What we know:
By secondary structure, the chain is α/β, with parallel strands linked by helices. 38% of the residues lie in helices and 17% in strands.
Amino acid sequence: xxxxxxxxxxxxxxLADPDRCCQLVDVREPQELAIASIPGFTNLPLxxxxxxxxxxxxxxxxxxxxxxxxxxxxxxxxxxxxxxxxGFTDLYNVIGGIAAYSQIVDPSIPKY
Length: 112
């Protein structure tokens, strides 16, 4: 596997660290973000890949830790695989996505 997996508890620990130096990417659709989101994530909807993919090296730094989130962890795993193919080296897929995050870490985040 060309990327790592991170639990929602580990994600919460990273988000709580003011000195963290990582990139946060949410690949869900804008309408999904309107329902539930975690502050600090850049939205790069997987469905709009053709629009943002050509500039990915300018939007994100390939050698910086990058954490990718979606609803359940499938789209974010796809994104991690694609980013790895683009030369990104420190990738983490959030297991269970925002659904698990709202269930385990922050129940105030709406489920959908």
